[in-house]
């Protein structure tokens, strides 16, 4: 029987309950899931890659077949370097699907061995978007509904009055 390993890449800035749900569901489908904190040159991150890695490790410590890593490389090339042939992406709506389909095609051009699996977000997570969570936290609003407790605490620290 073939061992199937998957990768879930993202900026995870911050990790949300939606991210954690997709990772948890993927961990039940694949032998190993590698969550990869990737750089996105189009985004201004509030947490460093290392901070995001640590936050994700804390949120996912109950999942024994999940490993968290970081990369400055393109996702398709990272997958090739680590012999990963499946990328899992969560999709909330048709806009996400369209965007993720374009990214999937690009990744397959860079690494033709890749398979892309889309997992639809559960209904309660469809409104969660990291950019909205960041904006709410920046303005001092409670984001505990959207993120795990450790992430909520870290965001409060990041956005202490005067640190904005």
Molecular structure report:
The chain is of the alpha/beta class and 164 residues long. The protein has a single domain, classed as 3-Layer(aba) Sandwich (Rossmann fold). Helix content is 41%, strand content 19%. The longest helix has 17 residues, at 94-110. The model has no long low-confidence stretch (mean pLDDT 92).
Subunit organisation of the chains: single chain
Mean pLDDT: 92
- If strands are numbered along the chain, what order do they take across the biggest sheet? 3-2-1-4-5
CATH architecture title:
3-Layer(aba) Sandwich
Structural class label: alpha/beta
Sheet bearing the most strands, described?
A: 5 strands, parallel
Q: How much of the polypeptide forms β-strand, as a percent range?
A: 15-25%
Task: Please tell me how large the radius of gyration is.
Answer: 16 Å
Would you count the extended β strands for me?
5
Characterize the overall form. globular
The level of helicity is: 40-55%
Using the coordinates shown, work out and report the CATH topology. Rossmann fold
The string of secondary-structure elements, in order, is: EHEHEHEHEHH
Please specify the SSE layout and strand pairing.
Elements: E1 5-10, H1 17-29, E2 32-38, H2 49-60, E3 66-71, H3 75-81, E4 86-91, H4 94-110, E5 115-120, H5 130-138, H6 149-158
Parallel strand pairs: 1-2, 1-4, 2-3, 4-5
Give a brief rundown of this model.
The protein has 164 residues and is of the alpha/beta class.
